[in-house]
Structure formats: structure tokens, C-alpha cells
Amino acid sequence: MTQPKISYIQEFILDKNSVQLFPASVGEVISNDDQRRIDKNPDMTFGEFTQIKNFAKQDKYSVSIEDNSGGIQYMTILAKGDFNGDQVEDLLLSVNNQVKEGTYNTYNLYVLTKTTQNGLWKIINSYPKKYKNLR
């Protein structure tokens, strides 16, 4: 990781409004239909993909989100820095997806960036790689 020269996220605050602007793929994508919906609209935001039922700020860097389908997402900012060497500050986000009724549970890391002040969030990288074989 290198020191960024430009930042469009320096003033970023993790709250209900900002989370809704993340890419839809950071949400709870548990079916082929969910993935196809995102694939048809790659600029879809988390707020367009997920109907937030309850939102709680845990601390400055963490939130929990319950959606209307019984899913729960725990999002935490782990770090900021230039993760891909383009001299623009990026965000490392941890997302834990669960369901209230069942055993579904995933942990994902996303490197997100914005290349303009009012631009869309983009996923630079994700770990593990998600849904590569869905058709």
C-alpha cells in the first residue's frame, strides 16, 4: 500500500446515507437472481438493492443493517490508503452477511474507491472473489 496523493473520501463518514451509496455488490447477494439483477445494472447502489429496515451505528467505523428480507449486514471500515497504486485514496471495507432465520453467514473484504468527489463508489477488489461461476 502506498501513500495516496489524492483523496475523494477524506471526509467520509460511515452512516446510513453514505452506506446507501456503496455498490450493490457489497450487500447480501445470496442468489443467482440477486447477482443477475446487479449484473443488469452495474451502477446499482446498495440503497437501490437493499431496503433498509433498521440501521445502527456501532462506532465511528462500524454499522449494522437489517434489511426487509431478514438479512443482517455488519460493515466495518478497516483501513484507508492507496491499495492499487493509482495515487487515489481507497477504502478497505469488511462486510459480514447473515440471516436472522438460518445459518447463512459470509465474510467479505472490499477495496472501494471514488475517482471524483461526487462520483460513484467502485469495487477495485474483493476477497474472496464472489460469484464467478453464476450464469
Overview of this structure, please?
This protein is mostly beta strands. The chain is 13% helix and 37% strand. Strand 5 (105-113) and strand 6 form a beta hairpin.
Top keywords for this entry?
single chain; 135 residues; mainly beta; 6-stranded antiparallel β-sheet; 3 helices; 6 strands; 13% helix; 37% strand; globular
Indicate how many domains the architecture comprises.
1
**Gyration radius from CA atoms, angstroms:** 15 Å
Main sheet makeup: 6 strands, antiparallel
What is the SS-derived class?
mainly beta
List segments where confidence is low: pLDDT < 50 over at least 5 consecutive residues. none
Number of strands: 6
Q: What string, H for helix and E for strand, traces the elements in order?
A: HHHEEEEEE
Helix proportion: 10-25%
Number of helices: 3
Strand order of the largest sheet: 1-2-3-4-5-6
The chain-level mean pLDDT equals: 90
Strand residues, percent: 35-45%
Distance between the termini: 34 Å
Oligomer: single chain
Shape: globular
Q: Short description, anyone?
A:
This protein is mostly beta strands and 135 residues long.
Helices and strands in order:
Elements: H1 16-19, H2 32-40, H3 46-49, E1 52-59, E2 62-67, E3 71-81, E4 90-99, E5 105-113, E6 122-127
Antiparallel strand pairs: 1-2, 2-3, 3-4, 4-5, 5-6
